[in-house]
Amino acid sequence: MHQVYTTFSNGNLWDISPIVGSLSWQSEIKTLGQKLSFDVAYSDMPFFPDNPVDVGGMIIVKNDGSEVLRTVVTSENKTGRDPINYSSFDPAFYLNKSKVIYQFNTNGDKAIRKICRDFGVPIGSVVSIPTKIDEIYNGKTPAKIFKDILAKAKADQGTSYVMEMRQGRLYIEKQDDVIVNARFDHAPNITGVGLQYSISNPSRKRSIDEMKNSIQVVKDDSIVFTTGSQSLIDEYGLLQETIDADDDQSMAQIRNMAKNKLNELAKIHEETSLELMGVDEARAGRLLDIEEPITGMSGRFLIKKASHTVSNGHHTMKLDVERIS
Questions:
Q1: In Å, how far from its chain's centre is CA 86?
Q2: Which of 207, 227, 208 is closest to 216 using CA atoms?
Q3: SS3 (DSSP) at 132
Q4: What is the pTM of this model?
Q5: Which residues contact 41 (CB under 8 A, 6 or more apart)?
Q6: Where would I find the YqbQ/XkdQ domain in this sequence (predicted)?
């Protein structure tokens, strides 16, 4: 059962679940953080419970005592005596609002830790990111700098990372380590059911629109390296991508960058949406194993967008996913 709390000035929690109606939250892979929307009942009748929620206040959602997410209320919408609608974002909201100037010549994780210290962002865990960041960031938000660092690390190492806020702390982990293995209880006597048994309305799209089966690397306006998948070129024709190398990159780094880009793009891209019983662990950037016989979905998928809804105690979710293996 999900409960919703706001906080007193002394940090104590105030359970507002009895006056909260609909509850929904979502995350997208292209944005840092989660958005929470909820309604609070309103009445000017005597003895109706007070509404302690205010713009700038903290909201914490728990499920059977475990924290699901915490957010800061950013907007309030009142219309007559209708329920009051609130929008809120997790603390990553602040990393999207300030523009900064940084110059780095250090490893990726050290650069991220430096920004977190400057902005007072508590760190839960940041894995080692050995890619060297030699860059000047001028007028960028911390969130965009983080994304650029992780993109550079992926190009350099071929490793994807997940960036999340949990319990007010920043976590950056290897994507392969963040897999949703949650189960749900179908009935009091039917527990621990796999998520795939609750799939409904599956939709699957397969396309070569984004496929690239040849990669060229350019440095100082000259092609310095080319690699490709001959089998895919023979089957689908030449689909080429050109990427730029930095002046200080060695040939070994250039070959590695091209190989990683080819591994990322040389495939049939598959996008899928499906509805399931809700589990709190499902959020954008995490991985999920799916076996769905109607559309033929099978394999490991990246969650690109997760939309959760809790209504009358019933938790459902819609996921947009992309097959990665």
A1: 22
A2: 227
A3: strand
A4: 0.84
A5: 19, 20, 21, 48, 83
A6: 24-321
Q: Where are the alpha helices (DSSP H) in the chain?
A: 108-119, 142-157, 230-236, 251-265
For the chain, list the domains and their CATH numbers: 2-89 (2.30.300.10), 95-176 (3.55.50.30), 179-207+269-323 (2.30.300.10), 214-265 (no CATH)
Question: Is residue 206 helix, strand or coil?
Answer: strand
Distance CA 257, CA 261 (A): 6
List the structure tokens of 224: 């310095």
Interatomic CA distance for residues 8 and 325, integer angstroms: 47
| CA dihedral sign, ordered 16, 17, 20, 26 | positive
- Among residues 265, 272, 287, which one has the least CA distance to residue 154? 265
Q: Which pair of structure tokens corresponds to residue 92?
A: 């990553």
Strand residues in 66-213 grouped as ranges (E): 66-77, 84-89, 100-107, 123-126, 132-140, 161-166, 169-174, 183-184, 193-194, 200-207
Phi-psi region at 232: left, alpha or beta (left = phi > 0; alpha = psi -120 to 50)? alpha
317, 280 Cβ separation under 8 angstroms: no
Residues 6+ apart with CB under 8 A from 178: 162, 285, 286, 287
For residues 325 and 294, is the Cβ–Cβ distance under 8 A?
Answer: no
| Residue whose structure tokens are 């109706």 | 48
Q: Running DSSP on this structure, what letter comes out for residue 19?
A: G
| Measured distance CA(247)–CA(267) in Å, rounded | 30
pLDDT of the residue at 103: 96
Nearest residue to 292 (alpha-carbon basis) of 184, 202, 192: 202
> Which positions of the chain have pLDDT values less than 70?
182-194
Phi, psi dihedrals of residue 319, rounded to the nearest 5°: -120, 135
Q: Which two tokens stand for residue 159?
A: 């490793």
pLDDT in tens, 191-238: 566 677 778 888 889 999 999 999 999 998 899 999 999 999 999 999
> Phi then psi for 133, rounded to 5 degrees?
-105, 105
- Length of the chain in residues, anyone? 325
